[in-house]
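Teaching assistant here, posting this on the class forum so everyone can see the example we discussed in section. The complex has two components, and the goal was to see what a joint structure prediction looks like when all of them are supplied at once.
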Amino acid sequence: MAQAAVLQSPSGSSKTIRLEQNREALEKDKRAEARVMFHLTVPALVIVGLLMVAPIAWLLSMSFVAPDGQLSLENYRLFFAEPVYRDMFLNTFKIAFIVTVLCLLLGYPVAYLLAITPAPWSGLLMLAVLMPFWTSTLVRTFSWLIILQRNGLVNSALVGAGLVERPIPLVHNMTGTIIGMVHIMVPFLILPLYASMKAIDGNLMRAAANLGSSPAHAFARVYLPLSMPGLVAGTIMVFVMCLGFYITPALLGGGKVKMIAQRIEESLSLYATWGPAAALAVLLLLMTALCLGLSLMLVRRLTPEV
Amino acid sequence: MATASTTTALPVLVQSLSKHFGEVRAVEDITFDIRPGEFLTLLGPSGSGKTTLLMMIAGFSRPTAGSIQIAGQEIVHLPPHKRNIGMVFQNYALFPHMTVGENVAYPLRLRGVGKAEIKDRVQRVLDLVQLGSYADRNISQLSGGQRQRIALARAIVFEPKILLMDEPLSALDKQLRETMQIEIRSLHDRLGMTTISVTHDQREALTMSDRIAVFSKGRLAQVATPSDLYEHPESQFVAEFIGESSFLPLEEKNGQWCYNGRPLKLADDGIGAADTMLLMLRPERLRWTEDNAAASGDGNQFTGQVRTVVFQGESLLFEVMLDGGHTVFVRMANRSENVRALPQAGQSVALRLERADARLVRAEG
């Protein structure tokens, strides 16, 4: 193009000079734009630095300070020395695992229903999923306390129907904790799963049927694998949130169900220094990061390229 | 067109088939048959019911009434996975989480075919669609045309009794579409599978089909071979949908059909006296004539004035206003011997239509 312009022009040399100048100007524009773009990201960088990086660095540094003010690994030694801590970590993972599995079993059919329901009804269904999601966790946890207690709704119904003789303990124990946690966590599973299912082309299930798959086989071979990215993303989200959950286990567990977050809180009110609590928090953070990393690898493996 | 039948092709019979969605009659009382090994195209504008009909044959949509039989066996009660009908979907519906080879092997695995045989048959069908080296590719790595071929391979690999195609070429660009039309047709001739294809593209229907079923508003307008449909359309709708045409209203005078006071020489006189009839004029069948050669011999003459001339590459299209007040189109091949004496816009001309080309069609209510 440029060459053609030069050839046609009677004063070829002046054209060449103008094109040269243009190139320099364009180069300058490019650099200026890159500078502006960088300046636009500064506020975000500052916020992330002040609110995320700095506190975590501070937490990390505190975890290496012993009660006597010396720099040491004392806080971490405590964790490995006392079996009660290890048991609590195991307990936390156990509860998170149970809650996640229950969320999966409850959430998958709901997400599927949401994905296949036509327009006006799917909106209402979605609202039904989101309403509790918008309500305060504290309010919902106290509601469960009322529903599940000795003379609560569930127990009076069960006794009234003659299904049990005496009210069964549903709250202030593991059962209550899990019921409350599942209720709070299940939308976090449904939403990514729903997004993933919505993206599945309806003709794929038809194609599977056309090629000879029974509905169950088509689900297992086509639908389930294609919903896997959302399923894994939702599962990770629920599991990770469960690991650090505080309010619901504290209220519905009645002091009998111990999870790490509670122990961190207790440690703070028990000891004068922040060291032990910081060490627990760092360990929780590391394990959570490990879980996230593993599952991200899994998602990448499972995501079909479309 | 005769088909070299390699598999035992089966006939399909569609009888009084209807599908109503509430008040909407998507398909209304349709009856036709498809001969073993025949390539039938369901042609019509969108919303004419052709896709709904295909969905009922595939088993994805339950008819309101009627019967579908394959080789005399009723299939309307069978779920789709028990019909053993191959289908190429409009967007191909290839499984994105499987490779090309796994997609094509899918129906064979379901039928319990042995591993070695699956490998062999997948390779053979991939060779057939000229993608023999693509078995290990991901679907995302394929172009539109390649996806189309794989969808076709997957639909025929298990040797179904019937092959259905839902707008199989609509997602491809024009050039590729034309190549694929011929390829699909020759593939059909080699395999001899009874094939039902749906399209809104008349060129595609004309190129690929043994017979074409034209649909209008949920009803069957006409079923015929491509050339029959073009030469002898029964209604204005079919004449307009297949090819281009202009129509002239007629009056009856002294027992003769006339236009603008002049009696016409028609290919086929007495038909359909009860209906309002129109004279169909195909643009390529009209010729320029000397003004006073008149209606000599077996021809009809019309006079008028050229309005516009449109250059369309291989041909030129003239819009002519007849003295009777109707507009007709005339198409001339872009050949040097034609171009020399072509009329200009504004010029008065005389047009000649041979008796054999002067056909009547039923006007649409």
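For the discussion questions: The radius of gyration of chain B is 25 Å. The first strand of chain B starts at residue 12 and ends at 21. Think about how each of these relates to the inputs above.
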